[in-house]
Amino acid sequence: MALSSSGTGTTGATPDDASVAPAATSAGRAPGRGLLPLLLIGNSAMYTLYIGVGGVLLALQVEDVDPANKVSNFGLIAGVSAIFATIFNPVAGALSDRSGRRNPWILGGGLAAVPAMFLLGSADTILLITIAWCLGQAVMNVYQAALTSVVPDRVPISARGKASAAVGLGLPFGSTLGALIGAAFSDDYRTGYLLFGAIVAGAAVLFTARTREERLPARAPLPVKQQLAAFTGALRDHDFRWAFIGRALLVLGYFAVSGYQLYILQDHTVLPGGMEPEEAVAVLMPLTSVAMVVSTVLGGYLSDRLDRRKLFVGASALLSALALVIPAVSDSWTAMLAFAAVNGLAFGSYMAVDTALVTMVLPKAQDAARDMGVLNIANAGPQIIAPFIASVIVSVSGGYTALFIVAAALAVAGALAVKPIRSVR
């Protein structure tokens, strides 16, 4: 597919630049040697905050405020805040498209994470926690929307698997760091939150200082009605729509379980004697991360080598379904360890290859950031629904077994959704 701004030149670029102008990448040149490590750092910082805050500190903070209603309160906060993520991601993508720049949005969103985390650490009621985390989701999705658009902007199709692997590795690295920091600061929310904000801010400064982007032609603003039509127009494209559906289904199942990981370890899993749930998270995350690293690298490399994206995406989604069945049939610590390893293998490969697939089915090159933002609704949107679905399933069934089964079924549906895609093998 065509990359953004194919008519842009490369004036001022040097072979050592971390970024490569869109015209150069569309001609088949590999991305600058510094870009992939910077993408890894930028995405690792993002997931460090998402996992450390959303998966550890926020759950503990909610439990401390109202222990009796922790499941429903956490579901409410996660769902409402995800609405902000859903709104801000495509909007921020469209704004960066219009400005012709990515770096200012990456820098602005990253720096804004610090005051947002300060507010979250200062919150002492469910309402204030909800408001503060909504603001945190908003600024993080400004950062994420611009960072996500770097791959279709600056990387040729022949290297998309490698670039997507660099992006995908951010999840296991960030998850591990986030879980470890979250566990370390489980009794000191304010300091932990500030550290997470500082990590994202530092990554944003590093990325924007080390990359020089070719400014794309500025685009005239559209009336609001036309902007809304443009957002929904991307979903009228056949292949993009099915990629969106597949991603949404798998992410829905994934976050229905992962969002409640701490509570699952508290109320479902039989932990070894003396092990606290926070310590269990710090064990599971590195295990998952190692598996993700292996499958992300192999998936990205092999999908490039074999030129087969749908095969890897579908197989990874089915493996995720298998992983979710393991803790459904056993509540042992061994079962959770097996789940963490297999799910890491599945999700790492899925995210690496599916990201490459998505960049190949974008409807319009000149709207890459906006359309990636629309696709990111498939990431953020299910997070709105997942907490409510999960809390209802847990409340009605009286446990987490049914939740694992429903999540597995969603993963199977996500695997089947890639089959109708026509333009990618």
Can you give a write-up of this model?
Helix content is 76%, strand content 0%. By secondary structure, the chain is mainly alpha-helical. The protein is globular, with a radius of gyration of 20 Å. Mean pLDDT is 81; it is low at 1-29.
Overview features:
transmembrane transporter activity, globular, MFS_dom, 425 residues, transmembrane, 16 helices, MFS, membrane, mainly alpha, 76% helix, Growth Hormone, Chain: A
Helical content class: over 70%
Q: Give the number of DSSP strands.
A: 0
Q: What are the secondary-structure elements, in order, as H or E? A: HHHHHHHHHHHHHHHH
CATH fold descriptor: Growth Hormone, Chain: A
In short:
With 425 residues, this protein is mainly alpha-helical. It has helices spanning 22-26, 35-65, 70-99, 103-122, 126-148, 150-154, 160-184, 189-210, 224-233, 238-258, 261-267, 277-306, 309-329, 333-360, 368-397, 401-417.
Q: What is this structure's SSE topology?
A:
Blueprint: H1 22-26, H2 35-65, H3 70-99, H4 103-122, H5 126-148, H6 150-154, H7 160-184, H8 189-210, H9 224-233, H10 238-258, H11 261-267, H12 277-306, H13 309-329, H14 333-360, H15 368-397, H16 401-417
